[in-house]
Design a protein that fits this description.
The chain is of the alpha+beta class. Helix content is 34%, strand content 27%. The strands form four sheets. A four-stranded mixed β-sheet has the order 4-8-7-6. A hairpin with a 5-residue loop joins β7 and β8. The mean pLDDT is 96.
């Protein structure tokens, strides 16, 4: 695994407690997002370094999550059905910002739309959904901070799955090792990816996706 990690107790010291932030593992140019799949989809993606094959469908919406612990909540630490393999997907920050720029909130908000009709029209025309959901601690309990997830479909999903991803790696073994510390209530030994707050280079994105600074 090429993702660098730290103890969870150190992770806690640096994270905002409330607000809407994109917490993610990142380098100067790249950002990691996570997805979880069944064995067949995961093995095709790892072998070919893009998504495809007989078990993957581009005729659906697929959600990406930058926050590791939020992904663990959704996939049950790689124990939920059809989510037994956790993949870390590396993409360039500029491509991630392109995805953010296409995003439409899953629920109507007066902040960006004068009418519900305008929002519904965007839902029809654009291929990225945005949701701010409660973030979670390692045990799956909700915390005050919000975490972002992005749903991709149509051209946005095809571009992501076939062109934008720079590297796909399987982190399932790492996830299973950390799950043992959850089960034994040993958070002092829990290790997680180093995550920092993502700061978009495009200023308008802060208002567009309701992002805190």
């Amino acid at each position: 695994m090429t993702i660098t990690t730290e103890l969870y107790k150190e992770h806690l010291l640096r994270q905002p407690k409330t607000g809407k932030y994109i917490l993610c593992h990142q380098t100067d140019d790249l950002i990691v997002v996570y997805q979880a799949y069944n064995k067949n989809i995961a093995e095709f993606a790892l072998k070919n370094q893009f998504f495809g094959g007989p078990d993957f469908s581009y005729n659906r919406m697929s959600w990406i999550k930058p926050n590791f612990l939020w992904m663990m909540f959704r996939c049950g630490w790689a124990e939920k059905e059809n989510q037994e393999r956790v993949l870390a997907l590396w993409l360039e920050k500029r491509d991630f910002e392109t995805i953010l720029g296409q995003a439409v909130p899953s629920t109507f908000e007066n902040r960006n739309y004068k009418t519900a009709e305008q929002w519904k029209n965007d839902l029809t025309l654009k291929n990225v959904r945005l949701q701010w959901d409660p973030d979670h601690d390692p045990y799956g309990r909700k915390i005050e901070r919000r975490a972002i997830q992005l749903g991709l479909k149509g051209a946005a999903l095809e571009n992501f799955g076939q062109k934008q991803i720079k590297k796909i790696e399987d982190i399932t073994d790492f996830v299973k090792i950390q799950k043992q510390f959850i089960d034994s209530n040993r958070l002092d030994r829990l290790v997680v990816p180093i995550e920092t707050v993502f700061q978009p280079a495009k200023e308008h994105l802060y208002e567009k996706i309701d992002l805190d600074r």
